[in-house]
Automatic annotation (TrEMBL):
It comes from Lentzea albidocapillata subsp. violacea. Residues 96-120 are annotated as: Disordered. This is SCP1.201-like deaminase. InterPro entries: SCP1.201-like (IPR032724). Residues 105-120 have a biased composition (Polar residues).
Length: 238
């Protein structure tokens, strides 16, 4: 029994390592796409450089399929590990795995990193993705990018109207963490756990800086990324 537990934990650690490798690859994929678009936009009207601009943008565009293949292999490896762990623990005793809709207190009673790794292994890998769980048992998948209903624009407008950022559009409002924080603010959830397959961004206009301003006062968003778990608490706007 003890030996099986040790093997299972070693496999979970391997899954965590694979998840940590996923984050920079996802970032590279997204940034390469952004770079290709920026090069084409910056080169508009530069007719003498059209061929060079297209060649350079094309080189960035070629990054995506290569990274996508690597992400698919990592995803398959993580799912394979999860299957092995499940089979091993099933051979001994049923694994005590937190239910998706269980209260936060019961989830965090288990080793948090292992729970995060297991949840992360179920996420799509071709785009930054996350799944959140609230205390009422609700869970949902959220992915980065603009929302058809303009949700990211409303987040941006809120930040501008409250003097949190200068009057401009920022990409951060399209991030998974920001969307979940906004939905918490709109829905009134007190606490949410979010598992994400990419590292929480940092910097002046990053999720790490802006999340406390998007969350409502007293709300708590606990983000489990491939590197660590972090807790963000809402605060009053300025």
């Amino acid at each position: 029994m003890a030996m099986l537990e040790e093997i299972a934990q070693a496999l979970r650690n391997a899954a965590d390592k694979a998840a940590a490798a996923t984050a920079p690859l996802v970032a590279a994929e997204e940034l390469a796409d952004d770079a290709a678009d920026l090069i084409r936009t910056a080169g508009e009207g530069s007719y003498g450089l059209t061929a060079e601009i297209e060649r350079t943008a094309g080189q960035f565009a070629q990054v995506k399929p290569v990274v996508a293949e690597l992400l698919e292999r990592l995803d398959a490896a993580q799912k394979g590990i999860a299957g092995i762990v499940s089979a091993l623990m099933g051979a001994a005793t049923p694994a005590k795995e937190p239910q998706a809709g269980a209260p936060a207190s019961s989830r965090t009673a288990q080793p948090e990193l292992s729970w995060g790794a297991q949840q992360r292994a179920t996420l799509p890998t071709h785009i930054t993705s996350g799944r959140y769980f609230d205390d009422d048992g609700h869970s949902d998948l959220v992915q980065s990018g603009g929302e058809p209903d303009g949700e990211h624009e409303r987040i941006n407008d809120y930040l501008i109207e409250n003097g949190i950022i200068d009057p401009k559009r920022i990409e951060t409002t399209k991030h998974v963490e920001m969307k979940v924080a906004w939905r918490m603010r709109q829905g009134g959830a007190d606490r949410v756990d979010l598992v994400i397959n990419n590292k929480v961004c940092s910097g002046v206009l990053s999720c790490a800086k802006l999340l406390p301003w998007v969350l409502g006062p007293g709300q708590v968003l606990r983000v489990h990324d491939p590197v660590r778990s972090r807790e963000f608490r809402g605060r009053d706007t300025r």
